[in-house]
Amino acid sequence: MSDHFLRTVLVQNRAQAADTTFQEDLPVNPLSQILVTMRGVITTADTAEPLTDFFDSITSLGVMFRGQDVIRGSLRDLAMLNAAVTGQAPWGQKIQDAGAEVWSLTVPINLGRRPYSPDECFPAVRRGDLRLEVTIDTVVNDVDLVEVQIETVELLDANPSKFLKYTSNAITFATTGQEIVRLPIGNPLLGVLLFSTTVPTAAARTATWEQLRIKVDNVESYFARANWDTLQGDLMRRVKSDMLFLSQHVHRFNGAAVAFADTLGPTRVGASGMGERYAYLDLDPLGDGRYMLETAGRADVTIQKDVGVADAGRFIPVELVSVAAGV
């Protein structure tokens, strides 16, 4: 008998309202994936940046098991992390209709490194134990009639041995010198996604995380020293061309200009872009756990920031949790 999956709608066309948080019970069967879709209509000019609106409107999305976070982060952070770890980048579409643009964006949120893997997903739970929490905090500027759709993928016959855990952590660096960021201990680490408020520009080639290393019990491990620019390139090689949807410009006819004039539209995620503010410390380059960082029994696992700008950043460790060990 073959295995079975069940894909169903959890939230259907929920209208967006600013400064609200809603929760939903997630399915009781082993859960592999949550698909979050934002959609809306643009009625403004070419300068509209609908993807920026979609990403920034969900400031926090959490998957909680008995009140404890398994997944937590902004939609933008979770989109980039899933693209890096699982290879599933956010994607969407634009449809031209009656002079308006209809946009949608779907972000996959995965509980394992491979969607639909029966060995790596969240195990079966009792009703109410596993909940989804979504915070919408921004009134969008360029998109009207914004709606949220959420779907789930259950693996009915799965008996998983492990699942992914990743939660966002904010930090503000006080100096441009050495500072320590402590990583969670107990579960193997597959990698760490980094967000940098400051990135290199023509005026200053600096970054929030400019140089860094990993230390395990005060001994350099995996990354003895690495630069932001190179790590950012590593991330982009992992996500490959799937992210082009988020940054490509648009050539289009401008009806207000000279006939047949072709104008260059803006990037659709705004001036801040998507990928350049992220980098990834990859501790599982083969995707099979061969190189993952075992933290059980360790006293201290840290990232040491050696130089960089004294401003805010974020880091999201990716843990591989044994089902036997629990959340």
Q: Any chance you could write out the topology, listing elements then pairs?
A:
Blueprint: E1 5-15, E2 20-25, E3 31-42, H1 50-57, E4 58-65, E5 68-73, H2 75-86, E6 91-97, E7 100-110, E8 130-136, E9 144-155, E10 162-167, E11 169-172, E12 179-182, E13 189-196, E14 211-216, E15 219-220, E16 226-227, H3 228-239, H4 244-247, E17 251-253, E18 262-264, E19 278-282, E20 301-307, E21 312-322
Parallel strand pairs: 5-10
Antiparallel strand pairs: 1-9, 2-8, 3-7, 3-9, 4-5, 4-8, 6-7, 10-21, 11-21, 12-20, 13-19, 13-21, 14-15, 14-16, 14-20, 17-18
Give structural notes.
- 11% of the residues lie in helices and 43% in strands.
- The chain is mainly β.
- The chain folds into 2 domains: 161 residues, Viral coat protein p3 (Adenovirus Type 2 Hexon, domain 4), CATH 2.70.9; 155 residues, Jelly Rolls (Sandwich).
- Strands 2, 4, 5, 8, 10, 11, 13, 19 and 21 form a 9-stranded mixed β-sheet that branches. A 5-stranded antiparallel β-sheet has the order 1-9-3-7-6, covered by helices on one side. Strands 12, 14, 15, 16 and 20 form a 5-stranded antiparallel β-sheet that branches.
- The longest helix has 12 residues.
- The radius of gyration is 21 Å and the shape is globular.
- About 3% of the residues have low confidence.
